[in-house]
Amino acid sequence: MAKLRLAVFISGGGSNLQAIIDSVDAGTLDLQIALVLSNNTEAFGLERARAAGIPTRVLSSGDFDSRERFVEAMLSTLEEFRVDFIALAGYLRKIPPELIERFSGRIVNIHPGPLPEFGGKGMFGIRVHEAVIESGRTSTEVTVHFVTEGYDEGAIIEKREVPIYPGDDAQTLQQRALEVEHMLYPEVLRGLISNNLCKPAPKA
Question: Which of 11, 62, 88, 112 has the most neighbouring CB atoms within 10 Å?
Answer without folding.
Answer: 112
